[in-house]
Amino acid sequence: MKKYLFFALILLSAFPAEGPAFHDIFIIWNVGQGQWLTGNLSDRCEHFDFGGEKFPLNKIKYHCSGKENHLQLSHWDFDHWGGLKRLIKIIPTLCHAPWPPLGLEKKLPEIAHTIPLCKKSLEPWYRPETNHINKKDLTSNDLSQIFIFQNQILIPGDSTNRMEKIWAANLTNLETKQIKVLILGHHGSKTSTSEALLQRLPRLKFAIATARESRYGHPHFVVLNRLRQHRIPILRTEDWGHIGLEL
Fold this sequence. Notes:
The protein has about 250 residues and is of the alpha/beta class. It contains nine helices and twelve strands. The chain has a single domain (about 25-245), classed as Metallo-beta-lactamase, Chain A (4-Layer Sandwich), CATH 3.60.15.10.
């Protein structure tokens, strides 16, 4: 299989009759076990997490240099932010949305202090409220911020089943009808993508896993069975490489 297979799907409209076939694209990078997603828009790139085991830095530079680059981080697990040092080297002009909350024993990485807050108002769709959770049971995954990109793509980070029950209940009827793509929570782990969440997404067309099944067992067979029952196909970066969605 080619190292770089760009899989394009039309979500809203047909290709334009004139001009380039692709304009605004959402890219799910094949970073192995981890997550790096980029909304490549005409004036900016929005990066939803920036971690993994390998990084397509030349391709990211090609798409995003010369534009504003906004960082939107779900949570402070290294496989979601570990590419930050390399990203700064190729695109030094970065800004970030509000960083996610830190776990009980975690400190903000030094490199995060060097990046300014974005001037434009960037907010996660949902920022976790954890007052009701026993602090002893609190995990970094519970603290995942939730993003919805262009009203169509749901990005839950590593949010857990118990947190899904809370934020999924806050989805409006309009949002549930507009969301077409789900980036599998926690790479398809059985601790995410609950039945309650899938029931709230009746218009979901497919799910995407950014994981390595051969080593980590993600996506888990429980999640795959759940998706199958809802007739939701799944794409894996492990199989397809980088995946591009035309918006």
